[in-house]
Amino acid sequence: MKRIWIVYLLLIVFIIGCRLDPDQSDILSIPQIRISLPEDGKSQISRILVFIEGSGRKLLPQEFLIKDNITEVFLDFAIPIDAEEIRVEAYDKDNQLIFDGDAGVSFTDKIPIDINLDPIMPMIRLKMIGNIVRVGETFGIQVLLRYAEDVFAVAFEIEYDPEFLQVTDVIEGELWDDKILMISDYEFENHPPGKLNIGITQLESGKIKNSGEIAVVRFWAKQVGESKIRLLGNNRLRVEKANGKLIDNYESIAELIDRAEISLGIKK
To answer: pTM for the full model?
Structure first.
């Protein structure tokens, strides 16, 4: 496996957004970022743009050219300690956006920040800031919908290990407006252990964004160990239009559902 190491120091001069916090604007941290290029389509990638976003501000994007036969890109960045998210966009030679990916920033894990690039097509994925939690800690998993048009209702099933994790709450995501109905079975007495079913539908037909947060599932870490959370590609998975039919290009959601998985470590 060939790798490329790029060492780059971001000089933070131009800040887009709100006024800088004087207590944090000059503080830098240097995490390592590991960007995994998709096996299918990596030869099409000509360049990538890296965006760093914080609370109310964005840094100017940094551009990197990609050589042939590269499977991973490693970057060492100096970034503000109040950075919250790193987003990567990959373009082909015709300047068309073909892949993207993002990750939350954690300065406590002391491990590389992993970003996997996904194709620009309808899919559902899971997102978590960092992948290390402590016993007794409550943390959230975002369920994200990407590039799906005419969405009216969504249903899915999440699988987790009840030996290590317990669901404490399910919250509707920012994708929806106020007029929705959400049902989840984590409080039902007869719900199967290690499974969580969620259904969300609009109560009135209306236009929503094609990408965003469907829901946030909060877990409590019960004991030390390694665990996984994943979205199942079974018959409970539905993304529907207002007429009850599956959205266009639903097949890509089902095909890419194995990407909706998170591995995490639980420490003392």
So the answer is: 0.73
CATH number of the domain enclosing 132: 2.60.40.680
Q: Which two tokens stand for residue 115?
A: 């970003």
Widest distance between CA atoms in the chain:
57
Tens of pLDDT along 21-34? 444 444 566 667 88
Helix (H) or strand (E) holding 120: none
- Say if residues 122 and 148 touch (Cβ distance below 8 Å): yes
What domain count does the chain have?
2
116 in Cβ contact with 146 (< 8 Å)? no
Q: Are residues 67 and 127 in the same domain?
A: no
CA torsion, ordered 77, 78, 81, 86, to nearest 10 deg: -30
> pLDDT for 113-164, tens place per residue?
888 888 888 999 999 877 889 999 999 999 999 999 899 999 999 999 999 9
Cα torsion angle, 213, 39, 239, 147, sign: positive
